[in-house]
Amino acid sequence: MASAICLVSTPGQATLLRGYVSEDQESAETQDLSTRRITGEVRADSLPFAFEGTWQCISEVTDSAVPAVQTGQKLTSDVQFVRKGDGRVVANWVQPGWTETQSAIQSWSPNEGQVDRTSYYYGEGLHGAWAAHARDRFTQINDDRIIAQSYVDQYIDGQYLGRYRTKSVLVRTQSAADLAHR
Predict the structure, then answer these.
(1) Closest CA to 47 of 80, 16, 18
(2) Which of 21, 76, 107, 160 is the most exposed place for a label (fewest CB within 10 A)?
(3) The model's pTM
């Protein structure tokens, strides 16, 4: 695969980006896309539409540099993928004490998406101000199962404690149609 990019600038004009992509690279990308399960529309600022509904999430810590989070530790939570008024599908985690304050979504196929989110802990018996920044990458493998790989950067009182990684399996408990009939 070969590709080249060069910047061309002329006095008084904007910088132009010029380049090419070789046929080898283009055919590799096309072949990669053809091997994916592509079944619908993709919106870059939304999670895949097929995610919509409620899912039980079982996460296992696969690596940790945070003393309070041990490798092998498991956590069960619920995730609701909800369609907003503007048509985007977003994720809402049901984790007592944690409040999400910021998130950014990116999708690149009808069954893959990623969420970057920042959350703060406001639970009882609080010993310091806890915060977490997570990146969750989701891949839907069938109508009722999603796998996710995540990393979480943990902070207390603004000081970085370390990072841990998780692998999760999400199993659908309610579809979007089930939620609409409640």
Answers:
(1) 80
(2) 76
(3) 0.72
